[in-house]
Predict the structure.
Amino acid sequence: MSAHPISARLAALLVLAAGLLAGLGVGAASPGHAAGTRGTTATTAQTPTTVATVPEPVVTAVQPPTVPASSLPGTGRPTVLLGDMNTPEQFVIGQLYQLALARLGYTVQLSRNDTVVGQRLAGLRSGTLDIYPEYLGEWNSQVAHLHRRFQTLRAAFAAGSAYARRHGFVLLPPTPFSDTKCVAVLTQYARANHVHSLTQLGRGGPIIFGAPIEFQSAPDGLPALRRVYHLTPDYVQPIAVGFQYWWLRTSNVQAAYCATTDPQLSGPAYVALQDPRRVFGHGNVVPVTTPHVLRVEGRPFRQAIERVDALLTLRAMRGLDAEIELGGHSPTAIAQQFLEGNGILPPSRYAPVPPTPTTSSSTTTAR
């Protein structure tokens, strides 16, 4: 028996919608896998997945209910001057903030590539910048000059916040995800040698370690691993950033420098070793702003930023990074899909066009 025309159209629409969400790697419950981070350039190509072709249904847009602009909390507030730094990850975060604030009626001016921390702080003081996403470890080391390891995120954030308050700034709560350096090994190697942390790697047998030149001499790089974990590789193989996973996959190195939000770490092939002594610090994002901005923009401004940040788990951030670095999607499209999937923006809703009624041969004509 053939399917009813309406059921067939609905089934095709559901399959198409699922394919679109899977293509962007973002969903309401599971945002997907993620991407490379500061200092990493992902080069691994993703093999396209072959899917069955379904007939494209005829659809018509259903507009979401509109809210009068005058009733939105951001209406009439000063323009938000939002900045981000020059990495794909920062581009996505900045776009997430911009879209979430615009939804509330705020006018947002986004500037990118704010690379010099001194200029960002000067902008906050002068009013040419209102807020930007910073990494807690970089704030503590480069701004607050707190050159010590913090065993917990709470302690690191408390120290950074105290410095911020003394100098007229405010750190908003940290994101769940942390973007730092790390060390990765093949999952097969980890299982065979019972290596799941840097402590165990330091106690294990001889290895060839792959790392870029700068990591071999950085204070929080290989010297710190030698000092804290007694990790003394038999040989250190210089490798270019972005090629570490090729070196691991081909077993030319047993361990390699990586970053915690690299998209490759979402899959089963690699594992990032635990850093129990926190050599690499805490790389959670902490938006930096000022008391004046929080006051004039109102409580919904802060709530919108914090609501977005609460969604940024490590899995989510790897997925978002992957979409821009590996998928080639624009930060705006990625952020839009993520916020829709998590209920911050209204979903793009489409309804099938009802089939044209047909006259059956058995239908009688009304008198």
Remarks:
- The CA atoms of residues 85 and 114 lie 5 Å apart.
- The chain is about 40% helix and 15% strand.
